[in-house]
Amino acid sequence: MSKDAVESAQATTRSQTAGTPADAGDAGYSKDLKARHVNMIAIGGAIGTGLFLGAGGRLHDAGPALALSYLVCGVFAFFVVRALGELVLYRPSSGSFVSYAREFLGEKGAYVAGWMYFLNWSTTGIADITAIALYTHYWSMFISTPQWVLALIALAVVLAVNLISVKIFGEMEFWFAIIKVATLVSFMLVGVFLLATRHDVGGTRPGLDVITSNGGVFPHGMMPVVLVMQGVIFAYAALELVGVAAGETAEPEKVVPRAVNSIMWRVGLFYVGSVVLLALLLPGSVYSAGQSPFVTVLSKIGIPAAGDVMNLVVLTAAMSSLNSGLYSTGRILRSMAMAGSAPRFTARMNRSQVPYGGILLTCAVCVLGVGLNYLMPSQAFEIVLNVASLGIISTWVIIMICHLVFVRRARAGLVTRPHFRLKFSPFTEVATIVFLLVCLGMMGDDPGVGRKTLLLIPVIALMLVAGWFGVRSRMSRQADRELSELTK
């Protein structure tokens, strides 16, 4: 890497927080993301297919108590984002938690954090293009088009958007989030009206009687409520995008606290509020995994276009997730490449200051997903979704470990904590880590894909170890080269 890049990164960082180490991967980015972009990225991360589609099957399994699962998981997700937000204000970086892992856990920590995050988003990308193809097949005009062709078209469109500029990415996410929020708000207004007027919903009169007459809050006991938490955690994946996006906004100290603090009430309103409303409108047994719960309700009151509208929204949510995955992995891989722990080409940027090398690498894995859609179209979605959950849980655990070390150094007087802080450290971090590991362990209760996914953990660990021995000499040379350039 060039001396100019190192000096630029260090100069930028020193102007924000004197004395903190720089991430050379931060050099060269534009600052084109506005406050409205970051706020909507936060909303988009909090609202996705986990709510629009996944809530139906979970309501069927857990009943009204699903709202409790969303609330508990939402609180821990908020702790993770709050911890990341504090680290961002300490030192904004497009490398986000990988950059912080490098500072507080060393290069091994950054290496594991980065590649597990890449595993998360590359497999999530496969799930997204699979979902997009499945949702597109909802309309009869696309039924004759092979699933793998639709998946490839979706990947090509989102790739093109990501490569143009970060501003275009921000605008796309802004409007994706607007569509999702507008849909949820509209449904909630309709639901409140049905509840207030006790309007008939498919032969059921809405109200508390719907819950009390169908087994109460825990119709199937407590265990299903606990077991669905593993899936609910995945529904909150992408909240950490706020930390990545902060590296490309001009005023992170103003934008990030506002975006992070708003996540809690959004979780309460959109997730918990929606589930409570759904439970008051229809019994949990009416909902199913194969249909959006919102479509279930709207179709029961005779709205003919409900399926088309919600399918379009779920399609939008999947496109938004794919868009975010390409964006974040491009930045994370560039931070790693600058340290030597990722392929050199992933450090490359185009004229629009977009790290296209990392984005293309993620797309290459997604292309493998197109092949998976060709070979196993009926199983592709479930397989990659479970693998992606390993990546997101490990990422969140690493963020909390980084925060623990950061707070310890702050108490030793080595660094200064910003005013925007995660409260009750170290209890909050430890409780969050334990909760996430318990959610991971609960995958073992699924005798099918869940247990097979857990068996992948030692395989992934061996791959990480082998990869580390493959890159450590290059990382050492990179560090020596940077040191020699800085001392010239």
Automatic annotation (TrEMBL):
Cellular localization per UniProt: Cell membrane
InterPro entries to which the protein is assigned, alphabetical: AA-permease/SLC12A_dom (IPR004841), Amino_acid_permease_CS (IPR004840)
Protein topology in the membrane: Multi-pass membrane protein
UniProt keyword S-adenosyl-L-methionine, yes or no: no
Keyword match Membrane: yes
Ranges for domain Amino acid permease/ SLC12A: 37-475
Source organism superkingdom: Bacteria
GO CC annotations on file: plasma membrane
GO biological process: amino acid transport; transmembrane transport
Keywords: Amino-acid transport, Cell membrane, Membrane, Transmembrane, Transmembrane helix, Transport
Annotated TM spans: 38-55, 67-89, 110-136, 148-169, 174-196, 225-247, 268-289, 309-333, 354-377, 383-406, 427-443, 455-471
Region described as Disordered: 1-24
Family, similarity comment: Belongs to the amino acid-polyamine-organocation (APC) superfamily. Amino acid transporter (AAT) (TC 2.A.3.1) family.
Protein name, per record: L-asparagine permease
Species this chain originates from: Streptomyces pluripotens
